[in-house]
Amino acid sequence: MEKLWANSGDSHLVEPDDLFDRSLSRSLAERMPRSVKDLDGGWETIHVDGQEFRRRLPRPGRRLTDENGLTVPDRAPGANDRKMRLLDLDSEGIWAELIYPSLGMWTSSIRDPELLAAGARAINDWAIEYQRFSPRYVSAATIPFLTVSSAVAEVTRAANLGFHAASLPVVPLIDGDDWHRESWEPLWTALAETGLVVAFHIGSEPHEASSRNGTYYRGPGGALLNYLETTYGGQRAVAKLIASGVFDRHPSLRAIVSEGGATWGPFVADRLDEAYRQHASAVRPRLRRLPSEYLYENVYASFQHDRSAVAAVTAMGWRNVCWGSDYPHIEGTFGHTQKTLHELVGDLDPATRHRITQGAFQELFPHVPPAPDGESSPGPLDAAAR
Predict the structure, then answer these.
(1) In total, how many domains does the chain have?
(2) What is the Cα Rg of the chain in Å?
(3) Per-residue model confidence (pLDDT) at position 173
(4) Which whole number is the average pLDDT over 82-90?
(5) 221: exposed, middle or buried (C-beta count within 10 Å: 0-12, 13-18, 19+)?
(6) What pTM was computed for the model?
(7) In this structure, are residues 307 and 315 in contact, taking their beta carbons and an 8 Å threshold?
(8) CATH code for position 247
(9) Domain residue limits at 322
(10) Which of 122, 293, 375, 377 has the fewest beta carbons under 10 Å from its own?
(11) Cβ(65)–Cβ(71) below 8 Å
(12) 48 in any annotated domain
């Protein structure tokens, strides 16, 4: 089949096991996120700042199989190697990626501002070297969020290092000011002035906040319910920015919600507009435009397998929708990317297909060189990819 090249609005780095040991003091490194796997028992324990979180692992040696019998390794071979990763991307037809941390996403459960700031710097110093290897890599800087001043300082440092996106958790604190509060205004100002894209990855709320709000389920249907619940955090985060006037005050600021689907966008836009009109007497602050206009212009979303996400573009008018591979995570598309893309967008008109596979991503990150045309690839190590 013809190769459909696509940019990914959701991919991940895999941090080396010794990242924090080699970049932080021992007293700080031992409190940063680390994974201990019990392959025989089938469990992984995440240790974070004195806390432990357990989750099930796939069975040892398990390989995923799709409906056509295609088997996929639990982890892509290039996951830990920035040179081999380009080979994986070329074979899958993925050109550029917005890349979040993996283990680093557990930093949202750290409660010590000093530890979080030091850990974020360590992650970012490593991630920027990954990005510098190829312009096809767009690493999202980890921003410490426990104090406004530390968040602003790392945004400024990240921009000076060359980052183009700033990763924020969908909920900033367990107790305290949420994203719609006025106290965060210096952060939005810094992001707007530096031009960094606000990157919300679903499932990035502090683990304690999730369990306290009842979003972790056990028993029948628990796995499906938990997966569903992770999608709501990103929707709430961008709704807070819209409703509190962040995009009104900073019209150049843009945000993306990664791995949370896209069909929710028009629904959230409609609900915010209805509230703005029908409950006008209670609305504060007043906005210069309808809430839906900010969502349709300032907010982007990436989807993975969602068939309905395409309709958000073709039938609902939200053009800020891009596809994402979730490389190299187990629920991603590695091994069947082309099959997935052809099923999702293969029958679309060329302009709409390009918008979803490349155009929306290019608006957010115009510095990335364009993807090759047709089936030919320039190769992962030529001048355009170094």
Answers:
(1) 1
(2) 20
(3) 74
(4) 95
(5) exposed
(6) 0.90
(7) no
(8) 3.20.20.140
(9) 6-29+71-364
(10) 375
(11) yes
(12) no
